[in-house]
Amino acid sequence: VEPDLAANAQLTLGKEQSLYLAAVLRKNVDDEVVLFNGRDGAWRARITSDSKKSVGLELVEQIAPQSPSSDLWYGFAPLKTERLDYVIQKATEMGVSTIQPVITRYTQVARLKHERLVANAIEAAEQCEVLNVPAVPTEISLDRLLDSWTTEQGNRKLILADEGENVSSPVEAIAALRGTPVGILIGPEGGFSDQERAKLRAQPFVVPVSLGPRILRADTAAVAALAVIQAIIGD
Ligand code: SAM
Predict the structure, then answer these.
(1) Which of 104, 136, 148, 222 is deepest in the core (most CB within 10 A)?
(2) Is any ligand 1 atom within 6 A of the Cβ of residue 221?
(3) What angle do CA 119, 121, 125 make, to 5 degrees?
(4) In whole numbers, what is the pLDDT of the chain averaged over residues?
(5) Tens digit of pLDDT for each residue in 163-186?
(6) pLDDT for the residue 67
(7) According to its UniProt record, which protein family does this protein belong to (predicted)?
(8) For residue 39, is pLDDT > 70?
(9) What is the pTM of this model?
(10) Which of these, 67, 90, 61, lies nearest to 1 by C-alpha position?
(11) Does the beta carbon of 161 sit less than 6 angstroms from any atom of ligand 1?
(12) Degrees to nearest 5, angle at CA 155 with 112 and 150
């Protein structure tokens, strides 16, 4: 819903959303639901009519977003389907503001169904009532990413989840970034190539960080990294 709607406004949902409410959530007339616009507007609404084709709603009151929107950018090398869905869902649940697929040399997936990624993010936001659906841009190359971070990201720092030598322990490195907008970049199952790693680490905005002594699967690393960052930075 658009945030400028007034209380008592009447809405009729389309077929897909009506089916979701009636068949999946098993909602009935007089039940209440939360509607949100994916940015900052959320409303409590009462169901006034419920056919599977179109559900009628009356807005009751606007509500503040429960989950403060974060400014946490999340970049990752796309994984194969079900693990890709998982990563989109967990990143959304953890409140990231942007989910950016980055194609690297060892990325396993050639072509992404962008609309599926967006639909996954919206569904994850609906399921866990995260009111700000993350932006999911189309995939870009690592070089294009580095160009954009050099020219467009201001003072944002890019936390590079990486193993091997010369990586900082996350606690000190991330604590030192408190108050600075950050992003986190997770590599593919096959890791970054030596050239990619050298190119990344040469950037002044990149902070290589270890996630511990064990090699984590990329989807595990995503959740671990986001959890550590949010625990330390509180974003
Ligand atoms: N053999 C690969 C390599 O040498 O990089 C392992 C890649 S790992 C399966 C996938 C991604 O998860 C890595 O590129 C990295 O971004 C992240 N990752 C996994 N374990 C990590 C750790 N202990 N510290 C930092 N990042 C890690």
Answers:
(1) 222
(2) yes
(3) 115
(4) 89
(5) 888 888 889 999 999 999 999 999
(6) 62
(7) Belongs to the RNA methyltransferase RsmE family.
(8) no
(9) 0.84
(10) 61
(11) yes
(12) 55
DSSP string, 100-121: EEEE-TT-S-S---HHHHHHHH
Task: Tell me the two tokens of residue 119.
Answer: 């639909």
Going by alpha carbons, the residue nearest to atom 4 of ligand 1 is 191
Beta bridge partners of 102: 140
Q: Which among 104, 192, 215, 220 is the best mutation to test ligand 1's pocket, defined by most ligand atoms within 8 Å of the CB? A: 215
ipTM score for this prediction: 0.97
Q: Which residues pair with 73 in a beta bridge?
A: 98, 183
E strand or H helix that includes residue 182 = strand 182-186
**What confidence tier does 37 reach under pLDDT thresholds 50, 70, 90?**
confident
Supply the pLDDT for residue 164.
81
**Cβ(189) to ligand 1 under 6 A?**
yes
CB 62 within 8 A of CB 41: yes
Residues 17 and 34: their CA atoms lie apart, in Å, by 13
For helices 142-152 and 194-201, the axis angle rounded to 10 degrees is 0
Q: How far is CA 18 from CA 22, 124, 154, in A?
A: 6, 18, 43
CB 186 within 8 A of CB 76: yes
In this structure, the strands spanning 98-103 and 42-50 are unpaired
Say how many residues make up the chain: 235
Of 103-107, 131-135, 159-163, 177-181, the range with the lowest mean pLDDT is 131-135
Which neighbouring-strand residues pair with 235?
A: none
pLDDT at residue 156 tops 90: yes
